[in-house]
Amino acid sequence: MLAYIGATVSGRINASPEALWELVSDVERHPQIAGSGEVQAVTIRDGRPLRVGAVFESQQFMRGIHYVTANRVVIWEPPYRFAWRVGLPSAPGIAQIWSFTLRPEANGTRVTNGVALIYVLPTFFPFSLIRKKLAQGYANSMLPTLDNLARMVNAPPPTDIQVINEPPADLTAMLPPLIVPGATIVAALLAAAAGGMAMWRRWRRS
Prior knowledge:
By secondary structure, the protein is α+β, with helices and mostly antiparallel strands. It has five helices and eight strands. It has helices spanning 17-24, 30-33, 127-152, 169-172, 179-205; strands spanning 2-13, 39-44, 55-62, 65-77, 81-85, 97-105, 108-122, 159-164. The chain has an eight-stranded antiparallel beta sheet.
């Protein structure tokens, strides 16, 4: 079985959804929010208010490399859900999808940060280990995001932290059916196998 790769982290923050929405929906403040530390600066194309279809560009710095992403808003439901799909300046919104979901909970807000990658892997061993390792890496980069949000609303550190090594279902629902990337993987494996057989036959004849 194939499945998309991603991760989901959540925690309860002692603040209202409206107060937290004011932060997560202000993409120009994402450099202070993002736990990965990769986001350096954000600008909104055309300077218009965000809505579904709007694009904002992000200056990124990862492992010594500077690059720019163009992110298209795919969910905009104030003050509860915001998601954007990463892309290139010439092709916005073609790669992974990130999201924030805010839900009232126990006199506070359950904040969920998730990501769905465009890559798929089989869910069985040994691919399951690779899936878990990749998901944990993304989860580890998102957990500090919850701490940053709590600090920015002058709240105590988040409580009841939950980590799921799978992407949010509402994000994977916006990606192509698994048969599409699955067929690509199968085609690549078949091509590799055919190439290996051809090389083996040449070696036998030589």
